[in-house]
């Protein structure tokens, strides 16, 4: 017993007989009726649609387009409220200026007034050294005469050594003041400056994401968020119908496939249009279908078919995506 949803398989001969019978019925009807009414394949209109969203959330502050308006890629669409980001940008710029000033200050070294202080300390240390040296000469002379002890001479020698060390210390301090901060301090200041610049770049990126432009050229199809409403991060605010993206999708029976080869032209019958619209085949699927679950009739049921797409030239007749249409079967060539 067959499954309720399973149909009996047709043999090759019976399938061909069914195909010939269906085609014969189409041709017989076309002999007595307008071929535009009979020799048609069910189809529907499809188009490319882009949903426009921002990766950051915010209240929609300004809406610059309306539904049905044509836009070009790069045109401004809407702006999200950015008071917090503006404040963050001002703070980041202040941190950058502070870091730059610190880096510049460390690279310069001490100011001239500070250097004068270090020079004065060096002169004082040299004067003390000369005084200690003179005092040592006096005590050494007195020691030779026997007026003082050896201990007194050793004390003056130690004082001279201390004075010389003080001179070296003052000279090193003056040199360090002229050279500026240490290399590790300058490196730390430079790192703070780089971090401040990165903070500015990050806030500027956030501000750019709140000014949304059209990613493609087309027509504003539908707007989901209005001025004053909150737009979620990543949620679509509107969608854009791509320009020149209208196409027809339909299934072509195997015996009619030679009439719908890529590049060939055909006509599409649309309700409400005065005359059929022109179209051109852009793709024919290489994988066959045995049933068309949404678009099949008794005469097409068991016939091998191929999913086919064709670029639709809308012209003056507007056709929204999803519209069911009829593809007129062209006459056989030769």
TrEMBL record:
As given in the record, the signal peptide range reads 1-24
Coiled-coil spans are: 80-180
| Ranges for domain Multidrug resistance protein MdtA-like alpha-helical hairpin | 115-178
On whether Signal is a keyword of this UniProt record, the answer is yes
Q: Which GO terms describe its cellular component?
A: plasma membrane
Residue ranges of every copy of the Multidrug resistance protein MdtA-like barrel-sandwich hybrid domain listed in the record: 51-241
Identify the keywords attached in UniProt to this record, alphabetized: Coiled coil, Signal
State what protein this is by name.
HlyD family secretion protein
Source species of the chain: Aquabacterium lacunae
